[in-house]
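Title: Prediction job returns without error message
Component: structure pipeline
Severity: low
Priority: P3
Assignee: unassigned

Description:
Job completed but the reporter wants confirmation the result is attached to the right record. Sequence as submitted:
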Amino acid sequence: MGFFSALQSSASALTAQRLRMDTISENIANANTTRTEEETPYQRKTVVFEARNGNIPFSNYLSEASQRIINNGGVRVAAIVEDQTPFKSVYDPGHPDADENGIVQMPNVDVVTEMVNMISATRAYEANVTAINTTKSMATKALEIGK
């Protein structure tokens, strides 16, 4: 794997993790939103990653001929999907969105889970920054050898 393809791979991961952090932030910000434009509670969103060149079978990764394809890899966001877990039902008869029984449908967002996901995304982002810095350091050392 060359220096530039290593940088490209880590850069794509940085972009994907940034979008993941943005999506998690949106979930946390809407944890108490009981009515959206669709007249339903906010539905939690998750980011789905896939490898670039994800349509290549794993057996091809084992052959030397496919090394050129792998070197142009990385990660990309395949989709942002809505979590299909049911909404939380909370008894709050004073809420403006309560039904005739006083039940309010709350978003399916668990703030603790979102914070754990945010920590995971932050750590992955930091790991990719470290990989970029290490690649830059190796390139600098390689150039120093030529002096």
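Comment from assignee: result matches the submitted record. The first strand starts at residue 45 and ends at 51.
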